[in-house]
Amino acid sequence: MHQLGTLEDLPESYRNELTEQNLVPLWPNMRAVLPPKVPSRKTRTLRWGYEVVRPLLLQAGELTPMEKAERRVLVLANPGHGLNNMQATPSIYMGLQLILPGETAPNHRHTPNAVRIIVEGEGAYTTVDGEPCRMERGDLILTPSGKWHEHQHEGDGPIVWLDILDLPLIYQLEGSWAMEGRPQQTTLSRDKSFADYSAAGVVPNLNFQRGTADAPMLRYPWSKTRSCLVEMAEHYQNGLLQVSYVNPETGASLFPSIGFGALMLRPGETVTLPKRTTACVFHAVEGAGQLNVDGGEPLAWNDKDTLSAPGYSDITLSNGSADQPAFMITADEAPLHRYLGIY
Ligand SMILES: [Fe+2]
């Protein structure tokens, strides 16, 4: 591919006149925005080790009372995107949030879609549009765009969860905003939507009415996901063992922007993921192992660590244990790539 003209090739007076008229010549920048064959990617392969983040998060609990933080979160920011832009990948925001015993996070709602994955602690629940959802290790709890949500913690120890939002995307679309609300009236019994959809393939049909809510199931308990993967392992001896989190009424991804999945690495297993366009994040729910991207330096990960990898790359995951399975929850931008026709 031949070299295109640069800005410096142009007379300064001409450049100044373009700037004055809010005009930019394309050719000096064209290769940067349309590189040959492979896109430029800012997402770096990275690990946020829980052993490092946890003490800093607990320190935030001492340094900043809840009323001064509202959401006491340390954002897992990918430096490739610029730390202050708070992006783990182009469209995904991730943060570890801490709530101390007796604290509450006030009721609010916002345009970005959010999922939280419980990392540590017991006794907390999130109330989503009147439904209290229990929060246990590895559970996935949804707060889709516009739904009211607030958090209570009645347990003894700290509770930590991983928030995953499409905030960078919605922010870029100039569509990101939030509002506060009065505490919710709990109108539904605890985990009602999970009870409705607790058996895969069976959906509620009360008075011959199928559910029509845009997010009919709000809590996806880890125990169910884990036992599904373990049972599947009986039938699939090799190859990537993975499930997707979907809307149980429609089979669609949880959000139009972010797709969620869970995978199991068999004891001693190393798997290479099919090469894909989308960046991806991984949260280790159980076990330890290594992540290798494009044959680079392998990153060792442990239980509760969170990792990122860019798209258009060869990703290899390995389980460090020869006798125990390892489990990870994944999030990627595949639904958006599919919608745009670039997947
Ligand atoms: Fe929120």
Automatic annotation (TrEMBL):
Q: Which InterPro entries match?
A: Cupin_2, GDO-like, RmlC-like_jellyroll, RmlC_Cupin_sf
Coiled-coil residue windows: none
Q: Where is the Cupin type-2 domain?
A: 96-164
Q: Which UniProt keywords apply?
A: Dioxygenase, Oxidoreductase
Molecular-function annotations in GO? dioxygenase activity
Q: Does the keyword Transport apply?
A: no
- In terms of superkingdom, the source organism counts as Bacteria
Q: Which Pfam families match?
A: Cupin_2
Name this polypeptide is given: Cupin
